[in-house]
Amino acid sequence: MQKLTRIVTLSVALLMISGCSYFGVYKRDLPQGNLVTEAMVEQLQPGMSRQQVVDLMGSPLLEAPFDASQWDYVYRLDEAYGGVEQRRVTLTFQGERLAGIEREGNISGDIQLPDDQGAGPSVEGSGPATQPTTPDGGVTTPQGGETSADSL
Fold first, then answer.
1. CA–CA distance from 6 to each of 2, 3, 15, 17, 56 (Å)?
2. pTM, two decimal places
3. The domain containing residue 33 runs over which residues?
4. What task does this protein carry out (predicted)?
């Protein structure tokens, strides 16, 4: 009986030492780059200025280093337990005006973005901010040498 107990105990100990790889490793989706949607690309019109494009699409992920006439917006989603989805929109400018739009990947498909409300502790200071108020309801801002209510 003692021999059986030792064998069971040793087996359980070896299983515990083997680590979490027996149960699997936690993975999460890894989004990278500029999120490019079909609605954004449809609003692009040849002749738009660079600033109008930045206002609509955001700053480009890649600008050609030797030729500033090409901007690339790349979005890559590496799904934890699935494949990789990549979208790319290349914008070509002539001078300060948009001249060409090239699409790669399935831009029309919807992407479910991961929410950050998952497991784990919340980051300190990420909750709703409260501002000190005056008796008449106005918001006060700390002046030099004063501390705000949040830092107390």
1. 6, 5, 14, 16, 68
2. 0.55
3. 28-110
4. Part of the outer membrane protein assembly complex, which is involved in assembly and insertion of beta-barrel proteins into the outer membrane.
Q: Is residue 77 a contact partner of residue 28, using CB atoms and an 8 Å limit?
A: no
Query: Tokens 């449809």 label which residue?
Result: 42
Over the stretch 33-85, which tens digit does the pLDDT of each residue have?
888 888 888 999 999 999 999 999 888 877 777 878 898 888 888 888 788 88
Whether 23 is in a domain gets the answer: no
**Cα 72 from Cα 33, distance rounded (Å):** 10
User: Letter for the amino acid at 40?
Assistant: M
The residue whose two tokens read 């206002």 is 55
Tell me the CATH number at 44. Answer: 3.30.1450
DSSP string, 36-61: --HHHHHT--TT-BHHHHHHHH-S-S
